[in-house]
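input
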Amino acid sequence: MVVSVISVLIILFLMVNIVNVVSVGLQNYKIIDEEQQKLDQIKNINNALKEELKYKESDAFVMQQALKELNLAMQGSTIYNIENETPEISYFEASKEFEKKIVVKKDRLREWMDLLIN
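output
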């Protein structure tokens, strides 16, 4: 009888340990799966950056930037200069424009009436 109680307790103990090991294994599997997804995302970003770097190291990109940023042109190209009709002014210049006083000139009749009435 004592042996059977001990054997039942040992079996219960082993079953609890087996359930615990399975539970920890499932948690670890979920963590590994999440980390694998993060790694895949990082690999995709890395591949996109490699492609961008490859393009930016190409002669086509260098030529495009030279034409655009440095205002250079290729030999034999036609250059068009488009003037801006509304010149850009700085904030300082714009604020000075708003500070100017507006002078309204009176006509002669109004001046005489103000002079006689006041």
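quick obs: The helical segments are 2-56, 59-69, 91-99, 108-117.
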